[in-house]
Amino acid sequence: MEVFWYILIAIVLAVFFILDGYDFGAGIIHLFFAKTEKDKEVITKSAGLFWDSNEVWLVAGGGMLFMAFPTFYASVFSGFYLPLIIVLWLMVFRAIGLEFRSHFHYQMWKDIWDASFGVSSLLLALFFGIALGNIVRGVNLGSVQNGIATQESHFFFLPLWNSSFSPLTDQPGVIDWFTIIIGIISVITLAIHGANWIILKTNASINEQLRTLIFKLNIVLAILTVFSLIVWQVVKPNSLDNFFDKPYLVVFPIIYFTGLIGLFFIKKFKKENQGFIFSTLLILGGITSSLASLFPVILPSTNKINESLTIYNMAAEEYGLSVALIWGIIGVILIGIYFIVQKKLMAEKIDKMDYH
C-alpha cells in the first residue's frame, strides 16, 4: 500500500511540474524576450488561462502526502519552513501579476505586474529545483551536533545557507553550490518547456526566435546534466546504485535523455506539439529519475546517527491508507476529467481568447 501511494503522489506531482511548469517557463520567456505589447499579452494569456487549474495538482499532491505520509509531511514542512514561505509568496505574486495586469491600461501599471509575473516565475523555477537538490542531497535529520541529536530523529531545520555554502558539511543549508546547480537546471528546463508551450498555443512574433533559443538552451542543459551527475557523485557517492541493483529503473533516465536528445531537432519539427512532447519527457524523466535513485528513501539523512526517511517508516497506518484508497482514486479521476474538459475547451490557439 505504501508503494501505491508513493507512486500515485509521484505521478500527481510530476503532472503538476509538467503543467504548471509551462506557466513558470512562459513567465521566464515573458521576462526576457517579450518586447511588444501584443507578445506580452498573448504570453500572459498562455499562462493566465491555465495556471489556476494547473495548481490544483499541487494541492492534490500535498493533500495526499499529508494523508499517506503524515510524519514526513510534518518533517518537511517544518524543516523547509523558510523556503516554503518564500515559494508561497512567489506563487501569490505570480498569480496577482497575471490577474492585475489588465485591470488598468497604464504602461507603468502593466510593467509592474509584468515584472511580478516574470521574476516570480523565474524564482519559483529556481526554488523548486533547489528543493529537488535538497531531496537528493539529504538533510541533517535530528539536527545532529557533535554526534548528538538535538531533535527527534525525523525532524530538522535548515537555514537558507551556511557560511561555507557547501553541501559537504554536516549541517548544510537549503542553498549551496550543489542545489544552485540543480536550480539552474530547473530554470533552463522550464524555460524550454514554456517556450514550447508558447509556440504551441500562440502566434507570438517571437515563436521562430524561441526555436533557436530552445536549441541553445538545450546545449547548456546537456552540459549541465553531465556536470550535475559528476558533482552528485561527489556530494553523495553511490547515488546511482539503485539503477545497477534494479536495472528496470533505467527506463526513467531513458525518458529524460529521449527528451534531451529530441529537443536538438527543434528547428526541424513540422508539428508545433512535437517540441512540447519532448520537453514534457524531459521534465517527467528528470523527476522520476531523481525519485528512482532514492527509492524507497524519500529524504536521505546526511548523518550516521539517524536513519533516512523512507516510505515504510513514514507511512500512515495500513487502515488509513486502505480507507483513503477509494477516495484518492475518485479525486484523481475528478481532477483528470476537469483537466480534459478544460484542455478540450481551449485546444486551439489562445491569441483571440478573452482572459477576463
Strand order of the largest sheet: 1-2
Oligomer: single chain
Mean pLDDT: 88
How far the N terminus sits from the C terminus, by CA atoms, comes to 44 Å
User: Class by helix and strand content?
Assistant: mainly alpha
Q: What general outline do the C-alpha atoms trace?
A: globular
Tell me what you see in this structure.
The protein is an all-alpha fold and 356 residues long. It is 69% helix and 3% strand. The chain contains 13 helices and four strands. The longest helix is centred in the N-terminal third of the chain and has 32 residues, at 2-33.
Outline the secondary-structure elements.
Blueprint lengths: L1 H32 L3 H12 L2 H4 L1 H13 L1 H10 L1 H20 L6 H31 L6 E2 L2 E2 L27 H25 L5 H29 L5 H5 L5 H12 L9 H23 L2 E3 L9 E2 L7 H28 L11
Antiparallel strand pairs: 1-2, 3-4
Helix pairs in contact: 1-2, 1-4, 1-7, 1-8, 1-12, 4-5, 4-13, 6-7, 7-8, 8-9, 8-12, 11-12
